[in-house]
Specification:
Strand content: under 5%
Shape: globular
Number of helices: 14
Structural class: mainly alpha
Number of strands: 0
Largest sheet: none
Order of helices and strands: HHHHHHHHHHHHHH
Distance between the termini: 60 Å
Radius of gyration: 22 Å
Helix content: 55-70%
Amino acid sequence: MQRTEVLLDHNPARRLPSASRTRLTTVYLASGIVLLAALLRFAKLATLPYGLYLDEAYNMIDAQSISWQHHPIFFFLNSGREPLFFYWLKLFLLGMGASTFSMRLASTCIAVLTVALEISVMSRLFNRRIGLLSGIVLATLYCDIQDSRLGLRFNLTPLFTLLLLLTLHNAATRRKPHGAVLVGVVLGVANYTYSSARVMPLIAVAAIIFLAVRKQAPIRQLWVGTGIGGACYALTVAPLGAYFFQHPDALGHMQDLRVVSLDQSIGDNIAAIYHGVTSYVLSFFYEGDTEWLQNISRKPIFDPIMAFMFFIGIGLLSRMAILGNTLRQHYVFPPQNLTSNRL
């Protein structure tokens, strides 16, 4: 009788082993989260926000200028900008024509891919529940939704930060030469996305120091891996570096953005750094960006409950980083996980 009931059971999920059902449920939930992220970012994309922002217009002009005869490695207009986003945008302009919608669709597709990668990477580093939780937070985070609806380059940086975390994890756990190669290539290509990506090597350095201090990898392997990754990074970023060497005035945009300056006194530089750090920390729970284009002016990144959980999470990760005997394999890089979307 029991055998007959099993044969008559037309629900395939019930006939799967428990582990398979869990994986299937995770796939369904992850797909739903990615779909929600897409709906929030694609809705009224051509008209909300209305019109093109100045930087978006410059991006459109540069992307339209790309051809087989004109394919620069750095775009000099608008204080100078890295090229990767423009080549990505060019694909959408070729397929859909030049419009506000096609411009922003290129950016929102990157954002949706970032949500999917967030789920995958955090599931790998922690577990499936944390991966799904981080995915739903990113999918519904207001500042990320508003930023991703603009056709601007910085939307590529979180994607490459997650790729870096993934490649660092694979390099540390599998300890194969190709793992270090991928870390170097991801770091190098990230330099072609946005100015802030130039500090991403610090994440890799922190990971190496963490592994060395916690003795989670032989020193010789760390040296070899660092050498391979560093060489691949140098080769990947060399064309852009050569351009900057030949055109030092192309770095003008970074000069405009820098906080410290040799023209200022030491006290002024320290005060500027203090103001920048405190403003950044306060943006998570007290006062966010004042620009209406990228935020509801002064709205913090997190609501009070989410901010509380955020700082609790920082405390737990810090504790796991210090107490090496509590670290498990998928907690290899606890300090770096905090940077995945707010670099």
